[in-house]
Amino acid sequence: MRKLAYSDWKISIKLSIMYMCFLVFPLSISLTIYAYISNQITIEKQVSLITQSLNSLETNIDNVITNVSNNSRIIIANNEIQQVIKEKSNTELVANQNRVSTALVEMVHSIPYVQSIYVFDHYGHRYGSDKHSLKSLKFTSIEEASWYERAKDEKGYYIIEINADDIFLNGEAENTISLIRIINSTVTMKPIGTLMINISEEAFKSNYDEISSGYSPNILLLNENQKVIATEGDISKEIINEVFPKGLKDEKGSRIVSVNDSRYLFSYKVLSKYGWMAIMSIPIKELEREPYQVAIVVIIIMSGIFVMVSCLIMSHTITKPIERLVHSMKQMETGKFVKVDIKTGGDEVGELKNHYNDMVDEIEKLIKRIYAEQQFKRTAELRMLQEQVKPHFLYNTIDAMRFLAYSGRNDELCEALEAFGNYYRTSLSKGSEIISLEEEINIVKDYLYLQKMRYGETIQFTFEIEACVLPYTVPKLILQPLVENAIYHGIKPKQQLGHIAIRSRLEENYILLEVEDDGVGMAGEKIATIMNNKASFGLRGTFERLNIFFERRDLYRIESEEDRGTKIMLYIPIGGSRE
């Protein structure tokens, strides 16, 4: 028993061995699952870290505001400040303002991140300290501020406002967080003034680096009215509205979303004490920088190289023969039946090649057989039409000679019989289907001579034939039916003198034959009927013979108008038919 070579193995066996060796599929699945699980673990870990960071941020914010609040108590309890702001008129106003401002300056510089401190009494006086420059109110009394009544309702407890210092002329462009509280008299416990401490946005930004967990987070801090308190990185209120179109209803949460074709991990938390919202986002691509992620990428690249090499081997040993076979099959679309000449074994590809080559042999034999049958059928159809034309012409000619005999015109009858003999001697042409154009013209002349004996001077005719076309060959009896049609359907119904012109000339690669009469003509509907091969036998037979002989249906054309005559044109391809 002959030992099977590798080329004789079944394709299924080859594929099984290759895939078992390369482990492409299980390796790919394993890496995909591993990458997915690792990514989920990383995201869950980061969600936990961000949550802790947001908790730390909440604590830091609370510490800042609590520290400022404690210092505000010191300010409103200061006896000198209490004494200055409770008096309506004061002869030592300037001196008192200087003392109060000095105290406030010390406070501004002792409290971190405080931008400015202002004290207002109820008489239109303002005392303050500002790290930039002291500012004047936009209106005459602090009681006109939009937040004043709300601060008053707190009865000495503070309120927080974003950019509450916009009550000043030439306010700062940066965001400030204003802690505002009413100053009550330590004696009567009645309101005697208002305290405003403006905290710089940097007070909150300084905490961001401490909670970044080694990444580059984007942080947004909103107050209870969705106004921006502070922001860090590429995050804005518009992005939050796009990411959370239905709002942030829960107290905390996380979500992975796409922003500008990049994926981000968003986490948020409500700062319950103030009703603020802290939102943090981290690009997912930063989470993928973990060391084990790099190891996964290296493994995938190595696996990809390994799989690519295996595919090249498979392409060389298995798919190349198939590709050549497919290329040969595609040539069938252009009518080329080419056998595949490749070296194969006894596997499925070899069997496919052998069956394909056998099929090509059978197709070629079938085409030759069909071609021979079509040629035989074409010849038979031509002969049948030719045989149909002869009796038709014979009948019309005998009818004309009968008319001469009946009229007693014996001399003319003898001449007609002689012309009739010449006609048939020429038309028979020793059984040939094609004759020279000169012979075809002679047939028409004999036919017209016979018809003129019958109709006399009622019919006139002229020949305009270029001498250069006479040697070319044409199918036999293609002009006579056209002349006959002109007589019987054009001139005769006119019942008066008619003229028929027979022309021929070279036109590009065709011999143009024209038969034109000045008879009754015909309407467009009748022309359409003739072009659809539903006309009288003479025309229909001629057109059909041209269709069969040249295997084309664009070799004839009819032009006609009612009462103006008809022109029929035949285009005979030259194609090497010259004698």
UniProtKB/TrEMBL annotation:
<protein>
    <submittedName>
        <fullName>Integral membrane sensor signal transduction histidine kinase</fullName>
    </submittedName>
</protein>
<dbReference type="InterPro" id="IPR036890">
    <property type="entry name" value="HATPase_C_sf"/>
</dbReference>
<dbReference type="Pfam" id="PF02743">
    <property type="entry name" value="dCache_1"/>
</dbReference>
<dbReference type="GO" id="GO:0000155">
    <property type="term" value="F:phosphorelay sensor kinase activity"/>
</dbReference>
<feature type="transmembrane region" description="Helical">
    <location>
        <begin position="292"/>
        <end position="314"/>
    </location>
</feature>
<dbReference type="InterPro" id="IPR003594">
    <property type="entry name" value="HATPase_dom"/>
</dbReference>
<dbReference type="InterPro" id="IPR003660">
    <property type="entry name" value="HAMP_dom"/>
</dbReference>
<dbReference type="Pfam" id="PF06580">
    <property type="entry name" value="His_kinase"/>
</dbReference>
<dbReference type="GO" id="GO:0005886">
    <property type="term" value="C:plasma membrane"/>
</dbReference>
<keyword id="KW-0812">Transmembrane</keyword>
<dbReference type="InterPro" id="IPR050640">
    <property type="entry name" value="Bact_2-comp_sensor_kinase"/>
</dbReference>
<keyword id="KW-1003">Cell membrane</keyword>
<feature type="domain" description="HAMP">
    <location>
        <begin position="316"/>
        <end position="368"/>
    </location>
</feature>
<keyword id="KW-0472">Membrane</keyword>
<keyword id="KW-1133">Transmembrane helix</keyword>
<dbReference type="Pfam" id="PF00672">
    <property type="entry name" value="HAMP"/>
</dbReference>
<dbReference type="InterPro" id="IPR033479">
    <property type="entry name" value="dCache_1"/>
</dbReference>
<keyword id="KW-0808">Transferase</keyword>
<keyword id="KW-0597">Phosphoprotein</keyword>
<dbReference type="InterPro" id="IPR010559">
    <property type="entry name" value="Sig_transdc_His_kin_internal"/>
</dbReference>
<feature type="transmembrane region" description="Helical">
    <location>
        <begin position="12"/>
        <end position="37"/>
    </location>
</feature>
<keyword id="KW-0418">Kinase</keyword>
<dbReference type="Pfam" id="PF02518">
    <property type="entry name" value="HATPase_c"/>
</dbReference>
